[in-house]
Each structure stands twice: as structure tokens, then as C-alpha cells.
Amino acid sequence: MRKKLFITLWILMILGLGVLSYVFYGIFTGAIGYMPDFQRLENPVNKYASQIVSSDGVLMGTWSYSSENRVFVPYEYLAPSTVQALIATEDVRFYEHSGIDYRALIRAIVKRGFMHQKNAGGGSTITQQLAKQLYSEKASSVLERAFQKPIEWVIALKLERYYTKEEIITLYLNQFDFLHNAVGIKTAARTYFNKEPNKLSVVESATLIGMCKNPSYFNPRRFEERCRERRNVVLTQMVKAGYLSRTEAEGYFDEPIELEFRPVDHKEGIATYLREYLRQIMMAKKPHRDEYASWQKQQFYDDSLSWDNDPIYGWCNKNTTREGKPYNIYTDGLKIYTTIDSRMQKYGEEALTSHVCKDLQPAFDKEMKSNKNRPYAAKLQKSIADKLLNRAKRQSGRYVTMKANGCSEQEIEKSFDTPVDMVVYTSNGDVDTVMTPMDSIKYYKGFLRSGFMCMENETGFVKAYVGGVNYHHFQYDMVTQGRRQVGSTIKPYLYSLAMENGYSPCDEAPNVQKTYIVNGNQEWTPRNGSTKHYGEMVTLKWGLATSNNWISAWLMDHLSPAAFVRLLHEYGIQNQEIVAAPSLCLGPCDISLYEMVGAYSAFPMKGVRRIPIFVTRIEDGEGNVLASFSPRVREVISEESSYKMISLMRGVMDGGTGSRMRNRYKIHAPMGGKTGTTNDNSDGWFMGYTPSLTMGAWVGGEERDIHFTSMALAQGANASLPIVAKFLQQVYADTLLGYSQEEKFDIPNNFEPCSSVYDEDDGEEILEDMGTMEENADQLNSETR
Q1: Model pLDDT for residues 644-657, shown as the tens digit of each residue
Q2: What would the mean pLDDT of 122-136 be, rounded to a whole number?
Q3: Nearest of 443, 271, 416 to residue 361 by alpha carbon
Q4: pLDDT single digits (tens) 723-764
Q5: How many Å apart are CA 70 and CA 66, to the nearest integer?
Q6: N or C end of the chain: smaller count of CB under 10 Å?
């Protein structure tokens, strides 16, 4: 009887081993369960965020899906304490086994399976945990998890065949999700401690590795004491493994959890507007007219030109990976090296915020305090203001969502008039308040919008790009997306057409009001804000410096509106709705700040404009260069005409409407420039250039009917010029940037367009009159178009 039992047990054991061997063979070959093929084992599907890097090597941000913000870091860039803490805590015999630690496995089976000790420790090695991270779906039950385990054992054995121990450690730490959108050790180090992974201290490494057991339960943001206890467990394990002495560990035990928590938010950081712009254009697809609304004719035209001529536009869909698929900036771990200088970007953002938020916004709020039409201009009819607000309500996300859910107009109206808790933006930071959704629409429309861009003349590299005051709350980009009336900043283009037609800065024109016959029989009588030198012959240089409308109209009458439109397009102005009318000389057309900066670069660069460039090269995750981008140039005017334009536009800065740059902000570098203010003070512009840089700034309301009443506050010299001035003050103060106020324009020594054309008292009168001059210039636009 005993012999039969013995034989039966042996037969059952052999059969069990046979079945087990068959199951594992089936798993190994992929006949049972999921087994990744050779290619996937050698190249695991890791979704790495793409990184956007400044020209001076600063990581500006990442692009990723919200749950996959992973940035790859190589083994040599890991802190030794991080690797030691991981091995000591998760797999102390890591260097001794080949994927499965049988001693730990048997211990876990005995203690957990037979003795029911939940704190007995797991049997999974680091390699098995990696196999789970890479290839196992989240189990919906204990039974499903039990079936996953043997598959992970086999995958772990295969991983050990294909990878070194260091590579397995690297894959594991790059794969682990530390929560708060911090996937991988690099993002986690930056999120929790604002450090690079190789700079983590022993205590910080132990804190992060302690989270590997359960990142939610041991999260330092939510459970500091619990996390500290877990960290000390890790430190104790490091002592047992011989990585720390008992004395060292005891010195760390009492240290508090000191975080410098900076969660990854794609709406925060530097150059947020540029990062979003690049994300959109790099992932853009070939435009097709049927994908655009009827009112998007201009957008379709812009996108079509960009697809054909701009190599960065649609780059991801114009190029493919080794697998033949289009690149994906969210998962392919690209490195995009931009032209932005992080220091100059910081100076640009600070200059815009300082002036718009701290100087202009309080003044605007003061003006609006007694305005019943707020945020719209007081003179706007209330019925029109109400209509504009109702349109804004219908375009809001709340309205669209409620309408889609079948809510009635009455229900929607009630929702918009019911106060709710909300966090709102202020110039001094976000605040909690109670407000109706309708009031919040009015509230946000009351903030001034602005844009600033700076480009290097020689290369076309954009060094600073600020699309607004705060990307988190105002995401409409006023550098590339927004087109606004440019007012008097269009006049240099007109004057350059004159220079191309043989005029010189010294040539004279009659400073008188004149009536012109336009469109066959219509009369047009431009007005001007000053009668200084009325009835006299004045030079063109004086005319541009004082932004004189009569001189601009006289020039247009002697030239051709059609030729002027053609020249504007040569300057890179893409607006196809520009009308070839005499009043065009006063700037009624809408142009983006991006286009204006690119166009103005022709003046200091011998008549050859630089097309602004944002990216110099793109690399894959292994450092291979996938694409390089070179400056693109277009000749617009002759060298001689460009020298004349520098002379004309220096007059604007040295005694004309741009004199505040000298008098108030003490910038003495050679500069050319032009201010502009449009009808009803809706837009304030300043465009300027030095021998090395071309810059532009715009300030205005979200809509044209939201604007200053005071011309003194709204004029380009007050609204926008200070942004450029404050930016230049910081740029010149930072000697490491290499820009100097002593540099000169590259003009032949024997070039002498004309001598000074100013009376000694003209400069102050120009400053007093320039707002009225520019306002009148653009009032004419509304009268004649």
C-alpha cells in the first residue's frame, strides 16, 4: 500500500513537472499567453516625451501625453545612490541571478502562500518588475494577475539575454511612474526636488526609490511621515547591502522630507507660447480646403504656404521613423533644439510683464472704473457691447457643453448668472473668488493683451518670443496667431518703395493738407495732428520722424498703391485682403507681429529680410541628427535703399516719435524704429532694430472695442516702446550675451544721405504731438476703407 502511494506521488510529481514544463515551453514560444517577439524585446515600446531645448542648453519643456511625460536618461547620468537604493530595496541579488531570484521566489511562496505573511516581501526581481511595466496590462483580478506571473518570468529571462544589468536598471528607472505626471527618474527628480537625476542626494534617492513599492501610498506630497518611514526602510536596506554604514544611515534617519515640488505643467515655464506654436506646426498635416471653414480662407492660404515652403511646418508628417510611421512628438523622444536664448527669453517675458501688468493694466483699470460699458469703450453703444458679450458667451466652453447636453436657453442663461467658486487670474497671481460665469467673461476681457518678439538679424534666429502676459489664462498667441491693424508702423515700407524709385531722405515734399480723388470720384482728405512747418517744404526724413500723414499721402500719390501691395508681399506680409488704396499708406491692414519683425529685418541687413527661424536641429533619442534647419532669406530692396532707410528710421529714434528710447530709457545704441497707434487707441505698436537685433511689440485689448480712452497712455511710444526698451536694458547689461551698444550699422563710410533736418525744439514737440498724429493717421483708415 505504501509502495503504491509512493509510486502515485512520483507519477503525479512527474506529470506536474511535465505539465509545468509544457506550459513554460508554450509561454516561451508564444503558444500560451502573450510573448513579445525578438524585435519588441530588443526595442521595447517606450513612449518618451520630446524635449524642447534653448540655444544655450536649457530644457524649456517637454511634449507628451498627460500620462506619459517620460524623458530618457542614460545609466551614466543616474546618481550612484539611486541605483544602490533600488538594488538594496527591490532586488539585493540583482547581479547574481539571470532574471528570476529562486531563493526570493520560494521565500515569498512559503511565507505568503502557506504562512499568510503579507509583509514577507515580494519575490519579483527588478527584471520581472520591468517585464510587468513593459508588457503586462493592468490585471482586473487576482486570478488574472496569477496567470500573468509565469509570463513575466519567461520575459524576464529573455530580457536578461538581450540586456546588460546596467541597461535593465536604466530601463526600469526610465519606465516607472512616480505620479504627478512624473514618469521616469529624470522627470521625477525634477518634479519632486527640482534636480537632475545625477544630482540627487542619498536621502532624495531613498525617497524616490521608496515610492517604487506604491507611489500613491508613499507619496511625499500627500503622506510626508509615511514617506519618511518608508525612506528610512530603504536606508536600512542600503546598510544591509553594504552601500551605507550604520552611522551614515542614522545621520539620515531624522532628516525631514524637503521637497521643491514643481509638477510638470505644459502651460508653465519659459517660452510657453512658442512651445505651443511649435507643437502645432510640427504636427500639422497637409492642409486641404474642405477642412477649413468658409471664413478661414486666409488661414488656409497661410498654412498652404507654410507646408510648401517652411521645412519645420508639418515636419512630423513629412518625415517617417525607421518603422515607416510619421514621427510623433509625444512618444518618440525627440530633442528639438530651438533658437531661443533662455536668458533673452526671460528678459522679454519680464519686460512685457513688468510694463503691461504693472504699469498699463492699473492705468486701464482706473480708466474703466466709472465705465458702465466695461470692458468695452465708454462711447460704444450699450446694445453693441451687449451683443459682443453675448457672442463671447455663446463661444465659451460652458455654453457649448451645455448646449451639446441638451440644455435649454433658459437653463444656460441661469447657469451663466449663478455665482460659483472659481480661481481667477490677477496681475499678482491667481486668487479664489466667487463670481458668475458671465461676470468672469467680462472680467477676463478687461485684461490688456500683448506680444513681443526679438530676432537676430544675421541668422534670422528668434531669440525671444512672448505671445502674451500669461499662457495659462490667455492662450491666444499675439505673435503668430493674432493679426492687428499696424497703423503708422506701415510707413517705413512706403518710404522704402520711394527709395527704390529714386527718392532720398533729403528730398522735400509740401507739408500741406490736400484732397485726393480716389476710386474715380471719391474725395479723400487726410488729416494730421500737427501744423508745425505748415505750408513749408519739408524733407522725407522729417516726415517719417514726425509720422506726418500728409507726407505719406503725398508719397502714395506719386507712387502706386498696387506697387505698394506687391512690395508688402515681398516683405513677407501674407494678408491677401490688403486693398491697393491710397489710404493703405496709413496702415489699415492687419499684420502679425511675426511678419512685422521679419519684414523690418530687411532694413539693417542690406535689403535682404530674414525669415524668422525657431529650430536649428532635431535629434532622436539616441542623439542622431534627423534634420537641420538653415536661415532662409529673401531680397526685398537694394542695399542703397536699405542705407537710406536706416538714415530715415534713425531719425525716428533720435528726434522723432521714438525719442523716449533715448530720453527716458537711456538706450544710446544706434537704432532705427517706428511707433504706431491705430484708430480709437485700439492698437499700440513699436518696431525697432539695432545692428544685431530686430524687435517688435504690440499692446491692445482682446477686441478692438476694448481700449484706452487716453491717447497719452495708448500711443505706441507709451504702450509698446517701453517693452522693447526694458528688454534692451537687460540684454545690454548681460555682457555674456555679447551684444554691445557700441556696435555700428554696416554702412559704407562715404554714404551720406543728408544732414540733420531738425530744429532744436522739434524733438519735444514731436513727443507731444505724436499720439495725435498716429491717431489721426488711423482714423482716416476707418473713414476711407
Answers
A1: 999 999 999 998 99
A2: 75
A3: 443
A4: 999 999 999 999 999 999 999 999 998 887 764 444 434 444
A5: 10
A6: N
pLDDT higher than 50, residue 773 = no
Cβ(334)–Cβ(626) below 8 Å: yes
Pairwise CA distance, residues 477 & 481, whole Å: 5
Task: Give the cell for residue 234.
Answer: 530603504
Query: Cα separations (Å) of 183 from 38, 70, 73?
Result: 26, 5, 12
Is the entire prediction scored with pTM above 0.90? no
Please give the helix or strand (H or E) that residue 38 lies within, else none. Answer: helix 38-42
Could you tell me which of 610, 627, 609 has the C-alpha nearest to residue 618?
627
With 50 as the cut, is the pLDDT of residue 105 above it? yes
Those residues whose C-beta lies under 8 Å from the C-beta of residue 146, and which sit 6 or more positions away, are none
Cell 510694463 sits on residue? 355
Query: What's the CA gap between 308 and 288, in Å, rounded?
Result: 13
Pairing of strands 50-53, 335-338: parallel
Burial level of 254, CB count in 10 A (0-12/13-18/19+)?
exposed
- Tens of pLDDT along 362-371? 999 999 988 8
Long-range contacts of residues 570-574, Cβ cutoff 8 Å, at least 24 apart? 570/634, 570/636, 571/493, 571/595, 571/598, 571/599, 571/602, 571/609, 571/636, 572/598, 572/599, 572/609, 572/611, 572/634, 573/599, 574/298, 574/301, 574/302, 574/305
Q: Is the pLDDT of residue 98 over 80?
A: no
Q: How far apart are CA 234 and CA 240, in angstroms?
A: 10
Q: What is the CA radius of gyration of the chain?
A: 34
Placement of cell 517719417 in the chain: 544
Phi then psi dihedrals of residue 176, to 5 deg: -70, 140
Name 530's Cβ contacts closer than 8 Å, sequence gap at least 6. Answer: 546, 548, 765, 769, 772, 773
Preceding amide of 375 cis, omega within 30: yes
